[in-house]
Every structure is written in structure tokens, then in C-alpha cells.
Amino acid sequence: MEFFETVKNIGSDHALVVPLTFFVAVLCFCLVIGHLLEENRWVNESITAIIIGVVTGTIILVCSKGKNSHILTFNEEVFFIYLLPPIIFNAGFQVKKKQFFHNFLTIMLFGVIGVFISASIITAGSQWLFPKMGFHGLSARDYVAIGAIFSSTDTVCTLQVLHQEETPLLYSLVFGEGVVNDATSVVLFNAVQKIDISRLNSKTALHLFGDFCYLFSTSTVLGVTTGLLTSYILKTLYFGRHSSVRELAIMVLMAYLSYMLAELLELSGILTVFFCGIIMSHYAWHNVTDSSRITTRHVFAMMSFVAETAIFLYVGMDALDIEKWKITKLSLWKLLGTYTIIVFLVLVGRAAFVFPLSAISNYFIKREDRSSSPSMISFKQQIIIWWAGLMRGAVSIALAFKQWIQSMQQ
């Protein structure tokens, strides 16, 4: 009896420590299971974390007698300030720059123009088909938000099957598009929140596109500037002669500073920290000691890995949130129908830009080289790129939570 009383007191005095401890313990369990399934090419870390999250959520749901399925509540500020930056920065830091910039125009076509095409089709399709399924009550802004949310892809599953050495072009396109369209989707989502969608016309659309171009360009410039400044500081002051810890610290803090400055200036922190990562890996990385080079790559990869695993673990738990399921008034068949419509629109939206934009890219490559170029995208590769976009990742999840929270507050 005294033991249970002690546990109760600990829970009351440490309201946040106890659930965090449990969550970290489950997170460690995810890493162990992920390691054991490393050789399995059909189950990746994300799927493992979601499954473990669902199992954990079920246990919590039973222990709480159906009241709750997770011990932590989603906070968009925590996600966008603490979890997302290391994921995006590591993507830029680890990217193979030669392939990325060699196919830069194609990646930008897929990651920017493709998002606008996909978002338009998903928005128009859902606005037309949802009411036919009995799904009413969404505003024009909600439909545009749906288009932006489901235009962000997660290519982790596909990249686990592809090999960078065997298919460098395909790997570069899938990886590059995945990162750029994440940034584009967030910029588009935030831009949509600032305008009156109900009065959307050619002037408003032009204003939206102008805001997007401004955010995209200024965010990129800020990221490049911060990366170059970090490289200059490391080269001039030579931190490594005293301690490699300072080298690592200045890189981490400058990368995080670039993200926070972008958010403070109402720019795109994702784009800023992504290009900051690219510049740092190209310049700053060569201005540090050999030990720091090894350490930085492992530290950044570790931070990104833990953040992604934590996100998918929470998603698994949240899938059984009874309160969210009680809010909807739709039947199970209508929910399945809505889900089917979304999947269908995502596939149509991707097909609407992958194949035409691939043809445009191949056309310009032919004009430049006047011959068959190894950078041309074959039809089989286009199919893989199209299918890879079916997956949705951490950014889509965060935007969906953010939109849901905003809708609940209105």
C-alpha cells in the first residue's frame, strides 16, 4: 500500500517526467526491434514505430479503461521547433550534392511545380467527392489545406529498397523531391492560412504565388548565408586546435539559429535549414578536424533518426485516440470511402505531374546533349517515382495535426 502511495505521489510531483520516461523507454524498445528487423527490406523503422505505437496505445487504452491511448499530447510548437529541424537539416547535410545539383532543375520541377499541381487536384477532387460521400462541413480553406497536407511525401520506404550506388539518378530524384516538396507543402500551407480562400480569384492567386516565391527565395538565401558564415567562422578561428566539441557545437547551434531566424522573420524554416545543411556539408565540413567530420555526420543522423522515430511512435498511439474518433459522425464505411478517395486523388495528382514534368525534363536534356543522356528519366523510373509518392511522412502528420487543432479552436 505504501508503494502505491509513493508511486501516486511521484506521479503528482512529476506530471511530465513520468510520461516522458515511459515514452523514452518505448522509444528505446523501438530502436531494438528496428535493429532486429534491419535485414527485412519490407519493414522499415517508420512502420516498426507505428506498429509498436499501436500496440502501446492499446495497452494504455486498456489500462485507462478506454479513456486515453497515449501519454503525451501533440504540440505543434514542440514538433516544428524541436523535432522537425534536425530531420530536415540532416537531409540537406547527408544529400549527395553532385547528383542533387546535377538534377537540380528536375528536382525543383517535381518538388515545387509538382506540389502545386498535386495540391490543386487533391483540393478540387476532395471538394467535389467528399459531399457525395456524405462528408460535409469543411470550408474552402480546409479543402486547400487538405491539398497541401497530402502533397507532402515520405520517400523513406522507397529509398530503403533503392541503392544509391546502383541507381544514382533515381535515388537522387526520389530523395530530392521528397525533401523539397516537404518544404514547399509547408510554405504553401502557411501561405494559405494568411489569405481569404472564399474570395479566391486571379488576383488573390497571383498574390499567393508571389508570397510563395518570396518565401522560397528569401528562406533559401538565409540558409545559404548562415552556412557560409559558419564555414568562414570555422576556417578563420580554427576551433579544432583546442577542442572538437566547439566545432560540433557551433555547427549545431548555427544550423538551429538559421531555422529560428527564419521562423522569427516569418519565412520557411524548413527551406532555410535544408540549404544551410547543404552548404555546411560542402564547406563547413571541410574546415573542421577529421574527428569532427566523423562525429558531425553521426550526431546529425542520430538526432534525425530519433526525432522521426518519436513522431511515428506517437502516430501509432494517436491512431486509437477515442476522443478523436468520437468527434466524427461518419460511419465506418463513409470513413473508408473518404480514405479511398484521398488515396485515389494522391495517385492521380502525382501522375498529373510526374509524367508530364519528366517529359519536359527529358526534352531539355536532349536539347542540351543532342544525344541519349544518362540523366534522362526512363518510363520505368517514372513509374517508381510516381508510386513512391504514395507514402506520407512526418511533415504531413504535423500539418494534419496543426489543421485539426486550428479547426477545433474555431
TrEMBL record:
* Topological relation to the membrane, as annotated: Multi-pass membrane protein
Q: Where is the Cation/H+ exchanger transmembrane domain?
A: 32-401
Ion transport recorded as keyword? yes
InterPro entries named in the record: Cation/H_exchanger_CPA1, Cation/H_exchanger_TM, NaH_exchanger
Q: Which reaction does it catalyse?
A: K(+)(in) + H(+)(out) = K(+)(out) + H(+)(in); Na(+)(in) + H(+)(out) = Na(+)(out) + H(+)(in)
Q: Does the keyword Hydrolase apply?
A: no
Chain ranges passing through the membrane: 16-37, 49-67, 79-95, 107-130, 214-233, 268-286, 298-317, 337-364, 384-405
Looking at the record's lineage, which domain of life comes first? Eukaryota
Cellular location(s): Membrane
One family name in Pfam for this protein:
Na_H_Exchanger
Question: Keyword set for this entry?
Answer: Ion transport, Membrane, Potassium, Potassium transport, Sodium, Sodium transport, Transmembrane, Transmembrane helix, Transport
Name used for this protein in its record: Sodium/hydrogen exchanger 4 isoform X2
Task: State the organism named in the record.
Answer: Cucumis melo
Gene, per the UniProt record: LOC103490107
